[in-house]
């Protein structure tokens, strides 16, 4: 992806700071020296050197050590740590330490604690126990950031700022009184008059009219279905409130260190923050990814997550900020990674555009809630499989660096991700409960099976960079969004729109007279009605009844049937429902428009049909497939001059590459130079 500009939101500084952070290939992890006696620190630096660590994320949860009493700062220990790391050749991504306020703060400002929709005020004793709208939290956090920036901005070890940590991970929305007041202010800016809010929210329904902004509240637990637009606006507000906090920290950091790169760690496909809005405010996109080793399908979500990170940075290299060497501790059952899995997983991050592979955390904790979470240096020490695998990967990445650092990953296909649509389909009182992310992966997977690299993009991205654009369940769209999609198809693109798309506008009002708005003309169809066949939950197969498709694309399908009416003589019907509510109606249509084509898929086809569709689309749009036949469990990606093929399974797998069929051992990674004949299999 080249020069798309995802949002028009304006960045926090004019020039993007010189990127010292990714000037070299990074290997390392979160380092929490405050959990250990200082005698351990020298050993840490020595072993980091042995493992090839060149970047440590320091101080993420150290506020109570840095400011043990209000306004009294204790930095000498951190000075010592940074000096030792620097002397040992380890650079530092220094945290602003604001993710977990100290006990004295919470005790003095109990109103800063977050509140759930049910009115439960969450307590101290874990982390992220603050409302993003708390004035006291903001004031104290920024005071700390000011101190840290002033003291360490020029420290030779520091190559970047790590702001807060995983915004919204535990508290996506807070329903406290300060949040309610901030929500009212946000609404009054958005709507200007209460009449406009009444119109947007459709408050004549169930007697919900407001006479002034003072009457409006956050959507607390209520007797029945909440007002949908109120819910959506509260989700938008909650993302904005966290983003405002992030930007307030960045503003302090920029004042002290105008050219120091700034990042905060994203969490992949995270519903609570609209990362298209956030991304322009990060100098380096970074991500935390923990695919479940027990789930053989988790590699699909991980691949998509990595592609999302590259896309958020508009193609720039990104940083895998956190990952696990083996088991985590936060699932119900926490499987460890068999030998080889860790390496194959980490190398897919590099293949998909990461210029750094970091972990949570360097040394496994002895106490606290994460004592059973994996680390680079495990409880059992250096004479362990995990530490040996870590050292081997550190060495391998250093060797690989000159061949991948800064190299592009090119993608000719894109899948649209839209946070409003995600939020809307997740609301109660919908025709079915299909998880937006699970559905997204159902459409991503067939591309992965053919080795077609996919970018993700917002609906208003510059789509002319792509030969195929899929809009899966793009439920919420404006008139302008739909015109943008129409222009893309007419100008030579291959647009694929799936069921439950273009049903609502951005206020969640229905597109009347057959849904789809202006896309009716693009697609040459309208929708009379529909039926839900089942639901789709994360990591599950679709529930409910299957339906049969007949025609050139025959097979089974799930989740949904639209009653499609063809309204244009140029609309071809390529598949029809053989049974059920919409029997005899089109399941798959295609209409040539301008120099391109617009497809509509009114159900979720099974794997064989999806594979056949990918074959058709990639041929029609002339998009290269790195895998010559659909293959599960294998990732094939080109980055720069390298072709990287990874077996993500514990079985032998055959991959049909353009050069011939290769046999891949369990977790094997094959890295091949494209411009030379030499292939190296690791
Ligand atoms: C998140 C956090 C880390 C740690 C890990 C454990 O990613 O950012 O501090 O808790 O989870 O998986």
CATH topology of the largest domain: TIM Barrel
The CATH superfamily title of the largest domain: Glycosidases
Oligomer: single chain
User: What portion of the residues fall into strands of 2 or more residues?
Assistant: 15-25%
Second rung of CATH, namely the architecture of the largest domain: Alpha-Beta Barrel
Which stretches of 5+ consecutive residues score pLDDT under 50? 1-10, 676-682
**Overall average residue pLDDT:** 96
The total of beta strands comes to 27
Q: Provide the domain count.
A: 3
Small molecules in complex: alpha-D-galactopyranose
| Rg over C-alpha atoms, rounded to the nearest angstrom | 26 Å
Helix fraction bin = 25-40%
Distance between the termini: 29 Å
3D architecture notes:
The two termini are about 30 Å apart. It contains 17 helices and 27 strands. The protein folds into three domains: about 25-405, TIM Barrel (Alpha-Beta Barrel); about 415-620, Class I glutamine amidotransferase (GATase) domain (Rossmann fold, 3-Layer(aba) Sandwich); about 635-675, no CATH class. The protein is of the alpha/beta class. The radius of gyration is 26 Å and the shape is globular. Helix 10 (about 300-310) crosses helix 14. The strands form five sheets. The chain has a ten-stranded mixed β-sheet, sandwiched between helices. It is about 30% helix and about 20% strand. The structure holds alpha-D-galactopyranose. Alpha-D-galactopyranose (GLA) binds near residues 165, 166 and 373.
């Amino acid at each position: 992806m080249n020069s798309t500009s995802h949002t028009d939101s304006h960045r926090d500084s004019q020039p993007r700071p010189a990127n010292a952070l990714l000037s070299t290939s990074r290997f390392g992890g979160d380092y929490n020296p405050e959990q250990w006696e200082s005698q351990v620190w020298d050993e840490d630096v020595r072993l980091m050197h042995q493992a090839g660590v060149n970047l440590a994320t320091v101080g993420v949860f150290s506020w109570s050590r840095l400011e043990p009493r209000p306004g009294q700062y204790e930095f000498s220990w951190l000075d010592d740590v940074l000096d030792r790391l620097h002397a040992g050749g380890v650079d530092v991504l220094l945290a602003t330490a604001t993710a977990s306020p100290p006990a004295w703060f919470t005790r003095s400002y109990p109103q800063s604690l977050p509140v759930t929709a049910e009115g439960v005020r969450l307590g101290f004793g874990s982390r992220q126990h603050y409302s993003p709208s708390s004035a006291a939290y903001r004031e104290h956090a920024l005071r700390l950031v000011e101190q840290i920036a002033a003291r360490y901005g020029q420290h030779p070890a520091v190559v970047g700022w790590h702001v807060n940590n995983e915004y919204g991970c535990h508290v996506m929305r807070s329903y406290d009184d300060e949040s309610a007041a901030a929500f009212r202010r946000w609404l009054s800016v958005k709507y200007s008059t209460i009449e406009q809010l009444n119109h947007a929210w459709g408050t004549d329904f169930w007697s919900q009219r407001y006479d002034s902004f003072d009457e409006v509240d956050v959507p607390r637990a209520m007797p029945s279905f909440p007002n949908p637009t109120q819910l959506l606006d509260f989700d938008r507000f909650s993302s904005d409130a966290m983003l405002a906090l992030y930007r307030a920290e960045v503003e302090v950091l920029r004042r002290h260190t105008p050219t120091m790169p700034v990042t905060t760690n994203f969490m992949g496909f995270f519903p609570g923050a609209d990362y298209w809005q956030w991304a322009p405010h990060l100098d380096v996109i970074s991500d935390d990814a923990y695919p479940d080793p027990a789930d053989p399908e988790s590699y699909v979500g991980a691949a998509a997550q990595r592609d999302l990170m590259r896309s958020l940075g508009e193609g720039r290299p990104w940083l895998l900020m956190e990952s696990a060497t083996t088991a985590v501790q936060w699932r119900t059952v926490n499987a460890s990674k068999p030998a080889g899995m860790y390496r194959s997983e980490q190398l897919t991050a590099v293949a998909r555009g990461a210029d750094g592979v970091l972990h949570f955390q360097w040394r496994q904790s002895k106490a606290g809630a994460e004592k059973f979470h994996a680390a680079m240096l495990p409880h059992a020490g250096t004479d362990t499989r995990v530490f040996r695998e870590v050292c081997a990967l550190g060495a391998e990445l250093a060797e690989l660096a000159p061949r991948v650092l800064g190299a592009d990953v090119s993608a000719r296909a894109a899948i649209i991700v839209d946070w409003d649509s995600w939020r809307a389909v997740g609301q109660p009182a919908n025709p079915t409960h299909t998880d937006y992310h699970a559905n997204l992966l159902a459409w991503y997977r067939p591309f992965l099976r053919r080795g077609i690299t996919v970018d993700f993009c917002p609906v208003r991205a510059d789509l002319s960079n792509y030969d195929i654009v899929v809009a899966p369940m793009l439920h919420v769209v404006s008139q302008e969004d739909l015109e943008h999609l129409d222009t893309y198809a007419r100008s030579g693109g291959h647009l694929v729109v799936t069921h439950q798309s273009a049903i609502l506008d951005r206020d969640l009002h229905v597109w009347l007279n057959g849904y789809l708005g202006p896309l009716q003309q693009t697609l040459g169809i309208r929708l009379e009605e529909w039926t839900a066949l089942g639901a789709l939950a994360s990591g599950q197969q679709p529930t409910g009844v299957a339906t049969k498709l007949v025609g050139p694309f025959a097979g089974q399908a799930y989740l949904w049937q639209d009653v499609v009416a063809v309204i244009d003589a140029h609309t071809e019907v390529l598949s029809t429902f053989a049974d059920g509510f919409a029997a005899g109606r089109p399941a798959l249509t295609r209409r040539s428009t301008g120099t391109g084509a617009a497809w509509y898929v009114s159900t979720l086809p099974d794997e064989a049909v999806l594979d056949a569709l990918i074959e058709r689309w990639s041929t029609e749009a002339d998009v290269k497939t790195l895998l010559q036949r659909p293959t599960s469990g294998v990732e094939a990606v080109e980055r720069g001059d390298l072709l990287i093929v990874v077996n993500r399974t514990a079985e032998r797998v055959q991959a049909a590459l353009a050069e011939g069929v290769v046999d891949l051992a369990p977790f094997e990674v094959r890295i091949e130079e494209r411009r030379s004949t030499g292939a190296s299999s690791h």
